[in-house]
């Protein structure tokens, strides 16, 4: 491999007409270029460049060697460009684990657009809130919401969303309007991931235990049950946007709701990640950067 050292520098000098110009082209020092070319000449046992105080020119052997090396360098550059293009023509299977209405309504459409950009790529999305084994399940990354406990994983913040308490007009007409989070204890609440709801009460984060006769870990099902008057729901605001516009649901307890509930992109801490996963993660981070 040592015999290849200096070839790029020599070709750059031959094409630019000097060591300084070649160094600028290669983004390195002039002394490095001069040293590499001198070592190349020593290994070949032949003078390639005729040096004077005013100019540098190719010797007869240098001209012959330049013509041969030029083809090699050009071929290598073309190979690198073709490889880069092939890398971005993603293939294989991207496996994503996701959960919640946000993932269904926003992450999935975003990945559909990513799939259009890479038609040779297969994408599998598993909508499941369970803890996944990234190795055994072959998951490239997961979309998760809330607090994360596994320190062995890398978590990158995707978005922060405000929480919102809602109920249907029919429910409020029947059971009344709660004016404080503690009053939720006597209401029917639709439970999603847990039955302890966090609120800002008197400047501190406090938990209120709620009960109800409807439970689901699917955000769309929770929203539908809430619209049907089965109880009060508490989830990220974006889950209820359309329902509120259509006056199917009414916001409650706004001043008490937690702000900035976070959704994360989570993946295994490993040295090498498939290009398809890296690009998909970067795509999602850029897409939701201004959420």
Automatic annotation (TrEMBL):
Transmembrane feature ranges: none
Gene Ontology terms for molecular function: DNA-binding transcription factor activity; sequence-specific DNA binding
Ranges for domain HTH lysR-type: 10-59
Gene Ontology process terms (BP): DNA-templated transcription
Source domain of life: Bacteria
Alphabetical keyword list: DNA-binding, Transcription, Transcription regulation
Pfam families: HTH_1, LysR_substrate
Signal peptide location: none
Family per similarity comment: Belongs to the LysR transcriptional regulatory family.
Protein name from the UniProt record: Transcriptional Regulator
Lineage of origin: Bacteria, Pseudomonadati, Pseudomonadota, Gammaproteobacteria, Alteromonadales
């Amino acid at each position: 491999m040592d015999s290849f050292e200096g070839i790029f520098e020599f070709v750059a000098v031959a094409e630019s007409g000097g060591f300084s110009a070649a160094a600028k082209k290669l983004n390195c020092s002039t002394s490095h270029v001069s040293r590499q070319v001198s070592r190349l000449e020593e290994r070949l046992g032949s003078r390639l460049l005729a040096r004077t105080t005013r100019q540098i020119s190719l010797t007869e052997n240098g001209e012959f060697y330049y013509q041969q090396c030029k083809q090699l360098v050009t071929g290598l550059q073309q190979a690198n460009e073709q490889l880069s293009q092939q890398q971005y023509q993603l293939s294989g299977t991207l496996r994503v684990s996701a959960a919640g209405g946000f993932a269904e309504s926003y992450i999935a459409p975003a990945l559909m657009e990513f799939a259009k950009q890479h038609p040779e790529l297969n994408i599998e999305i598993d909508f499941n809130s369970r803890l996944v084994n990234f190795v055994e399940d072959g998951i490239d990354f997961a979309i998760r919401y809330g607090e994360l406990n596994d320190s062995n994983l890398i978590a990158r913040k995707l978005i922060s969303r405000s929480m919102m308490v809602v109920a249907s007009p029919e429910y409020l007409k029947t059971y009344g309007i709660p004016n404080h989070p503690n009053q939720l204890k006597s209401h029917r609440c639709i439970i999603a991931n847990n039955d302890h709801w966090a609120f800002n009460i008197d400047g501190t984060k406090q938990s209120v235990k709620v009960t109800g006769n409807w439970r689901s870990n699917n955000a769309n099902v929770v929203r539908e049950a809430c619209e049907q008057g089965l109880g009060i729901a508490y989830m990220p605001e974006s889950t209820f946007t359309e329902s509120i516009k259509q006056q199917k649901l009414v916001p409650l307890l706004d001043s008490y709701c937690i702000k900035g509930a976070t959704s994360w992109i989570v993946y295994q801490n490993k040295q090498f990640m498939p290009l398809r996963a890296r690009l998909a993660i970067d795509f999602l981070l850029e897409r939701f950067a201004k959420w």
